[in-house]
Amino acid sequence: MAVSRKNFMKEKTDSRLFKLYDTLLPYIVVLIFLLFWQLSIRAGWVSSKKLAPPLDVLMTFINKLSNTRPDGATLQVNILQSLKLSLSGLFLGVAIGTPLGLLMGWYKPIERIVKPIFELLRPIPAIAWIPLTILWIGVGDPAKIMIIFFSAFVPCVLNSQSGIKQSKQVLINLAKTFGASNFESFVRIGIPSAMPMVFAGVRIALGNAWATLVAAELLAANAGLGYMITLGRQFGKPDLIILGMVVIGVLGFLFTYTFEKVEKKLLGWRL
To answer: Which intervals hold domain ABC transmembrane type-1 (predicted)?
Structure first.
């Protein structure tokens, strides 16, 4: 009995150690990477003019919280500007692309009308719209939002259309048996069935919108993370470039993490 209890306690301790190791492993890997990065520059393997060491990037981060040079804005202002553009374009892409995809997937006439035009526009990358966007609406924030919209619109349409087409026919037939109209089946069966794919499309759209941000902010911007990175290149400041890249990466991670939590909360009934 004592031996069994001893084995049980040992297994419990091993399990806790494994969970602790599993939790700390990603942070250990990142720390090792940063140390190697710092040491490789200190040792002269890589020129600091081409790749700033992590400590320099950290000092630039602290400095940019209050210093507006060289791009004319603090880091907080640049982040807020980029968030405004990316989230506005993402919202438009989701608000227009998701209903369109659901309607195309459920109603065949709508799909026949819209699909040829959509398939023609779908392969065009978002940044290819920059010249036309400048001609149409100039180089202000609406132009940047429109470019980000194009990057978010396509995955929302595709995933919503694919998701609603996976609705179980047996449920649709059952609804018709009880007198439900086609629109009622669309609302009560089609849309709920499509939600996992809709959320997957929004997640892809979120990544696309954030990734397109730098290209969008090349249009005569005066603030934003992409603009900060561009000026970092012009002034030969790799620390500023890397800081902008790191902030974009961290914010993208936080957005994805938060979105996954929201998705799990709203779609818990699917599990």
So the answer is: 79-259
